[in-house]
Amino acid sequence: MTGKIQAPASSGEAADYVTVTVGEALFGLPIARVHDVFRPNSITPVPLAPPEVVGLLNLRGRVVTALCLRRRLGLPAPDRNAMGMAVGLEQAGETFGLVVDAVGEVLRPAADTREAVPSNLDPRWRGLASGVHRLDGCLLVVLDVDALLAFGPAAEAA
């Protein structure tokens, strides 16, 4: 299953997010940064890659770096047989497949529900978040795609 993401027509200051889940946590990726949603398969491991890099995969003829959001957030790796879904993101001309447990819906929370990143949010998450939305019964953590895709030795040296 693959699909191109189409942003709903814009109206007002509210932002649109593609929602993804990892465990019980709900995250939002700015829809302008999301290019595809697909089920990853046939991932080739990359020796000596950072731990969050699951490997490489072929997405419509392009080599894509598969990045595990669980590992990026410091959570336990998923069951080896449960690969979930992936969200296609681009950064500096390179394509990434962000592997998540599940992809939800496109959500446009009201602008007045947005808050700064809480100081009590796990430090590993705080550096990857750009804000949160308090929704009915849950918290939507908005991910900063640039920070999320800055990883490995080059990111640590910066």
Automatic annotation (TrEMBL):
Cellular component, GO annotation: cytosol
Classification via Pfam families: CheW
Domain CheW-like: 14-154
Domain of life of the native organism: Bacteria
Gene Ontology biological-process entries: chemotaxis; signal transduction
Coiled-coil intervals, chain numbering: none
Gene3D superfamilies: CheA-289, Domain 4, SH3 Domains
SUPFAM superfamilies associated with the record: CheW-like
Record PROSITE patterns: CHEW
UniProt name for this protein: Purine-binding chemotaxis protein CheW
Organism for this UniProt entry: Methylorubrum rhodinum
